[in-house]
Amino acid sequence: xxxxxxxxxxxxxxxxxxxxxxxxxxxxxxxxxxxxxxxxxxxxxxxxxxxxxxxxxxxxxxxxxxxxxxxxxxxxxxxxxxxxxxxxxxxxxxxxxxxxxxxxxxxxxxxxxxxxxxxxxxxxxxxxxxxxxxxxxxxxxxxxxxxxxxxxxxxxxxxxxxxxxxxxxxxxxxxxxxxxxxxxxxxxxxxxxxxxxxxxxxxxxxxxxxxxxxxxxxxxxxxxxxxxxxxxxxxxxxxxxxxxxxxxxxxxxxxxxxxxxxxxxxxxxxxxxxxxxxxxxxxxxxxxxxxxxxxxxxxxx
Length: 301
Hints:
By secondary structure, the chain is mostly helical. The protein folds into 2 domains: 1-32; 63-300, MetI-like (MetI-like fold). 75% of the residues lie in helices and 1% in strands. The protein has helices spanning 2-46, 63-68, 72-105, 111-119, 126-136, 143-150, 167-192, 196-204, 209-220, 222-237, 239-248, 258-267, 272-300; strands spanning 49-50, 58-59. It has a two-stranded antiparallel sheet with strand order 1-2. Strand 1 (49-50) and strand 2 form a beta hairpin. Helix 4 runs antiparallel to helix 7 and helix 5 (126-136) runs parallel beside helix 11. The longest helix has 45 residues, at 2-46. The relative contact order is 0.13.
C-alpha cells in the first residue's frame, strides 16, 4: 500500500517537474500571441477587405496587394525606404566597424567616454531627435546654414528639409547618427572578446592594421554584424524612421517611407484595408532581410 502511494507521489512530481519549464516561457509566449501574432493575423484579415475602419467590410481578396504593384505612391515610398536603408543600415554598420576598431584596437584613452557619447542618440526619443534636427536643418537659424555662412560658403546653404533634392538624404542622416552608437557599442564589445594572441601572431607575420581588421576582426564580428543588420533594418523601415519623418517633414518632399504611407492611407484617407496590405508587405520585407541574414550567418559558420 505504501509502495503504491510512493509511486503515485513520484509520478505527480515528475508531471509537475515537466510542467515547470512551460510555466517559465508562458509569459513570453502569451505576450507574443497577444501583441504580435494575433495583431498580425487580424491585420492580414483586414487586408482582404475594402474597409474604411467604421462601415461595412467588402471582401475583395488579394486586390489590395495587386493594386500595390501599380501604386506610384507606394513605389516612391519603397524607393525612399531604400535610401533610408542604405544610410541607416549600410553606412551605420561600416562607420561603426571603423570607429569601433579605432576605439578598441587603437588603445585610445577614455574608451567608455566615447562609447557613452556615441550611445546618447539611442536613449533619445525619435520625436525629440527629429525636433532637434529640424532646428539644426532650419534654413534661417539652423546650425548647418549658420556654419556655412561663417566660413563663406553661402552658396551651399539650402532649406535642407524643404528641398526635394536634399530632404530624403537629410532625414536619412538622422537615422545614421541615431543608430551609429548602438553599432559601436556592440562592435567594441565583440572586438574585446577576440584573443589578443591572434593579433600578436599576425604582427610577427608582418600583417598591417588593415589586414588584421579584414582577416581577424571582421570574421570574428560576423554575429554582431548580423544582429546590428537585423535591428537596423527594423529601425530604418519601422516606427523609428516613421516618427523622425513625421516630425521633420511630415512625409513631404519625397521623404515619405512605407510606414508613414500606411499611416496616412489608414487614418487620413480612410483606406484601412489597403493600409493593412501595405503593412503586411512591409513586415514581409523586414522578415525577409532578417531571414536572409540569419541564413548567411549559419552558412558562414
